Amino acid sequence: MKYLIKRYLAVIYETLLMLALALALTAAYVMLVGDAGHGWKRLGLQALLWLAMGAYFVRCWVVTGQTLASQTWKLKVVDAHGQLLSHQQAMRRYLLACLLLLPAGLTLWWALLDRDQQFLHDRLLGSRIIELPRT
Q1: DSSP strand E in 1-135: where?
Q2: Residues 6+ apart with CB under 8 A from 61
Q3: Distance (Å, rounded) from C-alpha 94 to C-alpha 25?
Q4: Buried-state track 57-66, b at ≥16 Cβ within 10 A, e below 16
């Protein structure tokens, strides 16, 4: 259970980081294009935020297997063989995690039931989050 708590704390930390990124990008976007409350400007902002967050996660997972939050909590994303994810695997992981968050955070709740306490998107893709030794 301690491992699962660490993972949920990392999710909270990651959420705060993504909120900061979203606020900064939204401010820049609104300064450039004006009110983004509706129409194509709103869709453009949503696409920008989703793509920027995706770029952050994919890069981190491919290069080190760790985002800032997972570095803090000594966690790492690996494939079924314990290797770093490829670009294609990382992009699929981001897309599936986003889709499985939409129905009330399903992928996060899944870890409570999973035998290895993995998120649903990791279970489906064969990736997993491992705990690194403390140094």
Answers
A1: 75-78, 128-131
A2: 67, 77, 84, 85, 90, 93
A3: 19
A4: bbebbbeebb
Predicted pLDDT at 3:
85
In DSSP notation, 91-116 reads HHHHHHHHHHHTTTTHHHHHHHHSTT
- CB-count burial class (<10 Å; 0-12, 13-18, 19+) for 50: middle
Q: Tell me how far apart the 2 most distant CA atoms of the chain are, in Å.
A: 50
The two tokens of residue 52 are 């920027």
Q: What is the pLDDT of residues 2-37, one digit of tens each?
A: 889 999 999 999 999 999 999 999 999 999 999 999
Is there a contact between 78 and 84 (Cβ–Cβ < 8 Å)? yes
Residue 38 to residue 113: CA distance in whole angstroms: 39
Residue 17 token pair = 């980081």
Whole-number pLDDT of residue 134: 85
